[in-house]
Design brief:
9 helices; globular; single chain; alpha+beta; Arc Repressor Mutant, subunit A
Length: 249
């Protein structure tokens, strides 16, 4: 009998909220789950344990389409970073990692395979590490930019953002393309898709947010998930792992 999929999620300290979305862990995950990873608008750092008990660390950029991973690991812990962390925690652009990722050194940030055995301990150690990397100063415009788009679930125009933060639309899009590999408008569509997931999970298969019409809603959901809202709601065999998040909040 296959072990039950074990998923856990912990929210970060308030001091990290600009940079960290959440910590999560998963155990007993296998090929049989036929998982689909759908865009979440975050940068993911995943710590996995290999079959020979070594640690492997992968950094994943933003996703703009569904992904069907060939999962070799049954257990892992991860950190979902908000985009602001790209510049201020990691210190390098991730435009080249869009819809892809890169392996980090096995000893990245001082984590070892045994750290993955205790999720709460992992979160505490990770929290201390990230706190040690926090910058003294953050560009007020960038902090405010993300506050606005997250608070609106991406339903805010670049013109309104530009006016509120006194940063030109051209500069904002240049920043997004250089740092993340996509324009702000495309990123906002991902956030709106994410905001629709809780409604879809609850069976609300009509637009609850500012989509043009039902056809536009279906098109956008299908673009990011690979299936229609109806099929996404069914979530057969628990394939859409992002739905696990809404059971933990």
């Amino acid at each position: 009998m296959q072990p039950t999929l074990d998923f856990k999620l912990i929210q970060p300290d308030d001091s990290l909220r600009d940079f960290v979305c959440c910590f999560s862990s998963m155990h007993h995950f296998s090929h049989t789950h036929e998982a689909v990873v759908i865009p979440n608008g975050r940068i993911d750092l995943i710590f996995s344990k290999t079959k020979d008990n070594r640690i492997q660390v992968a950094l994943l950029g933003l996703e703009t389409q569904p992904k069907y991973p060939d999962q070799e690991f049954s257990d892992f812990c991860s950190v979902s970073f908000n985009p602001l962390a790209t510049e201020y925690i990691f210190g390098f652009p991730m435009a080249g990692l869009i819809n892809s990722g890169m392996l980090m050194p096995d000893d990245f940030w001082g984590f070892q395979a045994e750290d993955l055995n205790d999720f709460e301990g992992f979160c505490q150690k990770m929290t201390e590490k990230i706190k040690s990397l926090l910058p003294e100063n953050v560009d007020v415009r960038k902090r405010r930019l993300f506050e606005l788009i997250f608070a609106s679930n991406g339903e805010i125009s670049i013109a309104e953002i530009s006016e509120k933060i006194s940063w030109s639309q051209r500069q904002i899009n240049r920043y997004f393309n250089q740092q993340f590999g996509l324009p702000l408008k495309s990123y906002c569509k991902i956030l709106r898709f994410q905001a629709s997931l809780s409604d879809i999970k609850n069976g609300n298969l009509y637009p609850q947010l500012n989509f043009t019409d039902q056809s536009h809603f279906i098109k956008e959901i299908t673009k990011f998930s690979g299936v229609s809202p109806k099929e996404l709601h069914k979530n057969e065999n628990g394939r859409f792992l992002q739905f696990l998040v809404y059971g933990e909040k």
